[in-house]
Design goal:
single chain; alpha/beta; 8-stranded mixed β-sheet
């Protein structure tokens, strides 16, 4: 399937390259596709670089991989996305008096705002709770990092879950889109640990299960 990755920063490139290696057709949507910085990317197998509108036009799946502040403008440029899967990888962050904080608070999520801005889109929240290094390689000593996916469309979530599996994550479907209100603060925890503790960026979250004999 063709996947449009809107944004070619660290997160977008990590996701797009991973899906191209898994056999998907990936088109990056950027403001200036002819820019020299995209030449190497456009030569990679399974990858094209196009304008945002062009990338979105022929893709069943759209991936928002840009700063939160750009989302509304990008969605206007993308146009009608009704019926298509829209993966929200963003986190609504801003700098406050005490440092980085959630721009929307805790009573609504960025993903829910995006759903309101894109009527009819099958919005799923995913790929927002860890750094791009873990999207490039989510395996630590044979164990897979966890990736949570949430959304109100079960079929869309299953598809996004398969894309997560293709990158090497252990995927957990976490519930409806409202669950994004929990995943966005979880992203803040990862950022806090990555930038203020000795862990650095080279760590990931995982799920431990207890074997039960019932």
């Amino acid at each position: 399937m063709q996947i449009a990755v809107i944004g070619a920063g660290n997160v977008g490139e990590a996701l797009g390259r991973g899906w191209a290696r898994a056999g998907h057709e990936v088109v990056f949507g950027v403001r200036e596709p002819g820019d020299a910085r995209f030449e190497a990317l456009s030569r990679e197998p399974g990858i094209r670089v196009a304008t945002i509108a062009e990338a979105a036009a022929g893709s069943a799946i759209l991936v928002l991989a840009m700063p939160w502040q750009a989302v509304e403008e990008v969605l206007r440029e993308v146009g009608d996305v009704a019926g298509r899967i829209l993966i929200d990888c963003t986190n609504p962050l801003r700098m406050g008096a005490a440092g980085l904080e959630l721009a929307l608070g805790y009573e609504v999520s960025g993903a829910e705002r995006i759903a309101a801005l894109a009527p009819g889109a099958r919005v799923c929240k995913a790929f927002n709770t860890t750094g791009y290094g873990n999207m490039e390689n989510p395996v630590y000593d044979g164990r897979r990092a966890v990736m949570f996916v949430c959304g109100d469309d079960a079929v869309a979530c299953k598809t996004v879950g398969e894309l997560s599996d293709a990158l090497g994550f252990e995927t957990i479907l976490a519930g409806g889109l409202r669950t994004a209100r929990l995943l966005e603060p979880l992203a803040m925890l990862w950022i806090q640990l990555a930038f203020t503790t000795p862990l650095g960026r080279d760590f990931a979250l995982a799920v431990l299960r207890r074997n039960r004999q019932d």
